[in-house]
């Protein structure tokens, strides 16, 4: 078993004296020494051993001893290990050129020089023990995802509760087929452990310096300046030998120091900016291997209006697989540009699932749980900048991590039922039992009538008796919704705001016969069922309800209409089913419509067409979707009439 520090763990030990009902006594050993029970440990009569809060000194080998009737038996050993993250070794660099292979081990801050067009392999060192790790590459503090050409994960070692382990890769390798200037700099491998939140290990850094014509580490960026202000362009290079830098104007004339211009090795500064200073400025870097240039535009303006938002996005909650649109608009002089970023995240990771339905807007399709977080819309015109934030919450339907299974146990034996569920929001686990006086048992619960619910959601019965036979219901709930119980079945249910799933479990003393009911091709008319058992003495009955999920059905369809050009048109579409409708889509002539300046798709299924024009005449169709599938499309035809021009009649004077 692997446990985090301060985590609560349980070990169970059960034995029986063959041919005798003699009660057994249990004791536990760590190594060869008997365990002395203290405030942090518990030993139950049924042999269960509990450590309330795991400490580092608790790691080691444990076994159980059962004793009674003059007999003694020992269990096999189980090892308790503490989740940890070991240090990384120094990074290595292997360079390959002209079919020769040489290997250099780098220590912190030591540099290595390679030629351009050399194949380079960077290997991260030995990483964490016990659990999986992830390696990331950093260049001067900037994460370089684009460099992952052939990457494997850092060291992994997964162990289950039976201490069965699986070893995987022990190195993380980065291959760069053709070395470029952007690859120069410091490289560091980081290792993290999912059980040890906030902990990280860093390898020693490896520094790469390239031989060849200069490359740019920092290139000049476009600038916007007011008349009379100051502006600075930055430029720095990489490569060996070191480069000489010159600044040039649009006419490729070298710029020198003057009363308003200051030229330094890595910058160009212009003070008291004038309209005539507008144009392109070029940083030219050269050495004995060649030269390189980078240019940027200076825009000079004599008017300025600060950036101001005219439309800001609103917080949204969306289901996994859905789509979300954030609207963001701003004004200012010069005209601002709008960009989107994600707090503590990389928006480029979801770039294949994003688009811009209108200037400055952000739309994410096929939303994933990892998309949850704070998004920032930034408007800038070079002279002023303003930002606004919006929260995206992604909900995920519940799913079972472990399901209870039907079991048959004898009296006085130990029994355990597992039921854990995942989802967003994270479900909370509770149990109801055949012993009605216990009510609902929350996670975790104190022992009562030999029954206890552990922090992980598992229900344990330390010593089974006849009163424990019957129905056990495990419910998963979150802040949005509480699961419903299904009478007459031994059911474990998981439900949150998105949906629900169910798994059956029966706890009995004896099982005879097979009374299962199988329904093929379930339809919504399949609902209530009663199971009856009878013999010569009497009969008993048990009821169960089945909820059938189906595709949506359009209940209110859009109607054909005739409108006048320039009107605002509202088309209505409603659907109903179980589970609820997730989204209503609109199509025009079979092409899907999205919210923009012309069309607005509302959450209730309506479509509004603003200032309709003759080219918008045609067939509009709506289609509803849920977790099961899509409805049949419902269509309407919108006819757009163009008003005839009014003719004004003037009287004409006729002279005889």
Automatic annotation (TrEMBL):
<dbReference type="Pfam" id="PF13927">
    <property type="entry name" value="Ig_3"/>
</dbReference>
<keyword id="KW-0812">Transmembrane</keyword>
<dbReference type="InterPro" id="IPR007110">
    <property type="entry name" value="Ig-like_dom"/>
</dbReference>
<feature type="domain" description="Ig-like">
    <location>
        <begin position="552"/>
        <end position="641"/>
    </location>
</feature>
<keyword id="KW-0732">Signal</keyword>
<keyword id="KW-1133">Transmembrane helix</keyword>
<dbReference type="InterPro" id="IPR003599">
    <property type="entry name" value="Ig_sub"/>
</dbReference>
<dbReference type="InterPro" id="IPR013098">
    <property type="entry name" value="Ig_I-set"/>
</dbReference>
<keyword id="KW-0472">Membrane</keyword>
<feature type="domain" description="Ig-like">
    <location>
        <begin position="1"/>
        <end position="81"/>
    </location>
</feature>
<protein>
    <submittedName>
        <fullName>Putative hemicentin-2</fullName>
    </submittedName>
</protein>
<feature type="domain" description="Ig-like">
    <location>
        <begin position="398"/>
        <end position="491"/>
    </location>
</feature>
<dbReference type="Pfam" id="PF07679">
    <property type="entry name" value="I-set"/>
</dbReference>
<dbReference type="InterPro" id="IPR003598">
    <property type="entry name" value="Ig_sub2"/>
</dbReference>
<dbReference type="GO" id="GO:0016020">
    <property type="term" value="C:membrane"/>
</dbReference>
<feature type="domain" description="Ig-like">
    <location>
        <begin position="306"/>
        <end position="393"/>
    </location>
</feature>
<feature type="domain" description="Ig-like">
    <location>
        <begin position="214"/>
        <end position="301"/>
    </location>
</feature>
<dbReference type="InterPro" id="IPR013783">
    <property type="entry name" value="Ig-like_fold"/>
</dbReference>
<keyword id="KW-0393">Immunoglobulin domain</keyword>
<keyword id="KW-1015">Disulfide bond</keyword>
<dbReference type="InterPro" id="IPR051170">
    <property type="entry name" value="Neural/epithelial_adhesion"/>
</dbReference>
<dbReference type="GO" id="GO:0007399">
    <property type="term" value="P:nervous system development"/>
</dbReference>
<keyword id="KW-0677">Repeat</keyword>
<feature type="domain" description="Ig-like">
    <location>
        <begin position="125"/>
        <end position="209"/>
    </location>
</feature>
<dbReference type="InterPro" id="IPR036179">
    <property type="entry name" value="Ig-like_dom_sf"/>
</dbReference>
């Amino acid at each position: 078993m692997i446990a985090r520090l301060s985590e609560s763990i349980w070990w169970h030990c059960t034995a029986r004296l063959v041919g005798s009902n003699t009660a057994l006594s249990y004791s536990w050993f760590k190594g060869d020494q008997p365990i002395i029970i203290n405030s942090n440990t518990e030993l139950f009569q049924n042999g269960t051993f509990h450590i309330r809060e795991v400490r580092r000194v608790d790691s080691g080998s444990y076994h159980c001893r059962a004793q009674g009737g003059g007999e003694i038996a020992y269990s096999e050993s189980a090892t308790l290990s503490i989740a940890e993250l070991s240090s990384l070794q120094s990074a290595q660099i292997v360079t390959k050129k002209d079919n020769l292979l040489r290997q250099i081990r780098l220590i912190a801050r030591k540099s290595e020089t390679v030629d351009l067009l050399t194949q380079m392999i960077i290997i991260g060192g030995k990483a964490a023990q016990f659990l999986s790790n992830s390696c990331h590459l950093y260049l001067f503090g900037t994460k370089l995802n684009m460099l992952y050409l052939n990457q494997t994960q850092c060291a992994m070692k997964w162990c289950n509760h039976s201490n069965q382990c699986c070893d995987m890769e022990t190195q993380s390798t980065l291959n760069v087929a053709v070395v470029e200037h952007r690859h120069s700099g410091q490289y560091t491998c980081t290792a993290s452990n999912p059980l040890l939140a906030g902990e990280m290990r860093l390898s020693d850094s490896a520094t790469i310096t390239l031989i060849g014509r200069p490359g740019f580490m920092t290139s000049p960026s476009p600038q916007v300046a007011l008349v009379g202000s100051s502006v600075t362009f930055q430029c720095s290079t990489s490569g060996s030998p070191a480069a000489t830098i010159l600044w040039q104007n649009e006419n490729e004339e070298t710029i020198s120091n003057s009363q308003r211009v200051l030229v330094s090795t890595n910058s160009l500064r212009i003070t008291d900016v004038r309209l005539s200073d507008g144009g392109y400025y070029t940083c030219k870097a050269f050495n004995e291997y060649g030269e390189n240039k980078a240019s940027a535009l200076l825009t000079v303006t004599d008017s300025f209006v600060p950036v101001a938002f005219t439309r800001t996005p609103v917080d949204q909650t969306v289901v996994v697989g859905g789509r979300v649109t954030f609207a963001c608009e701003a004004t200012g002089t010069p005209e601002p540009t709008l960009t989107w970023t994600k707090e503590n995240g990389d928006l480029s990771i979801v770039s294949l699932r994003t688009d811009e339905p209108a200037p400055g807007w952000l739309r994410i399709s096929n939303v994933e749980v990892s998309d949850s977080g704070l998004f920032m819309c930034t408007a800038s015109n070079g002279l002023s900048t303003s930002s606004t934030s919006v929260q995206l919450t992604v909900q995920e339907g519940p799913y079972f991590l472990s399901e209870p299974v039907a079991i048959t146990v004898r009296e006085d034996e130990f029994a355990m039922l597992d039921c854990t569920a995942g989802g967003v929001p994270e479900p909370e686990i509770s149990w109801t039992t055949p012993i009605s006086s216990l009510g609902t048992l929350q996670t975790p619960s104190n022992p009562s009538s030999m029954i206890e619910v552990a922090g992980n959601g598992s229900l344990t019965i330390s010593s089974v008796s006849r009163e424990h036979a019957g129905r056990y219901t495990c419910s998963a709930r979150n802040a949005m919704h509480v699961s419903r119980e299904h009478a007459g079945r031994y059911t474990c249910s998981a439900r949150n705001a998105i949906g629900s799933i169910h798994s059956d479990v029966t706890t009995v003393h004896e099982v005879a016969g097979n009374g299962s009911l199988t329904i093929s091709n379930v339809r919504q008319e399949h609902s209530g069922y009663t199971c009856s058992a009878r013999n010569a003495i009497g009969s008993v009955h048990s009821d169960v309800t089945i909820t059938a999920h189906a595709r949506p059905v359009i209940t209110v369809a859009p109607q054909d209409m005739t409108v006048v050009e320039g009107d605002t048109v509202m088309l209505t579409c409603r659907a109903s089913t179980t589970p609820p409708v997730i989204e209503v889509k609109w199509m025009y002539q079979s092409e899907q419509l999205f919210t923009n300046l012309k069309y607005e798709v509302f959450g209730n299924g309506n479509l509004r067409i603003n200032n309709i024009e003759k080219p918008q005449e045609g067939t509009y169709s709506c289609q509803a979707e849920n977790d099961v599938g899509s409805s049949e499309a419902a269509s309407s035809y919108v006819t757009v009439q163009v008003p005839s021009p009014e003719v004004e009649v003037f009287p004409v004077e006729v002279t005889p």
